[in-house]
């Protein structure tokens, strides 16, 4: 989990946190498995939104 450790270390840097906050981003840390679960939940939410709104993919 070196990648996770390095990202977490980088996100603790004051300058990085400030720049990201200036872009409206909210930082949250945690293990990769927690992030994967968040992504899976978001995918399910957006699948429902797309289906209910009858959004079609176009080229």
Task: Describe this structure as you would to a colleague.
The N and C termini lie far apart (38 Å). This protein has helices at residues 2-11, 14-22, 32-52. The relative contact order is 0.09. The chain is elongated. By secondary structure, the chain is mainly alpha-helical.
Write the layout of secondary structure elements.
Elements lengths: L1 H10 L2 H9 L9 H21 L7
Task: Write the H/E string, N to C.
Answer: HHH
Quick one: overall form? elongated
Mean pLDDT: 92
Low-confidence stretches: none
The helix fraction, in percent, is 55-70%
Termini, distance in Å?
38 Å
**Count of domain modules:** 1
Beta-strand content estimate: under 5%
**Biggest sheet overview:** none
Our Rg estimate from Cα atoms comes to 16 Å
| Number of β-strand runs | 0
Keywords:
mainly alpha; elongated; 0% strand; 59 residues
How do you describe this structure in short?
By secondary structure, this protein is mostly helical. It has helices at 2-11, 14-22, 32-52.
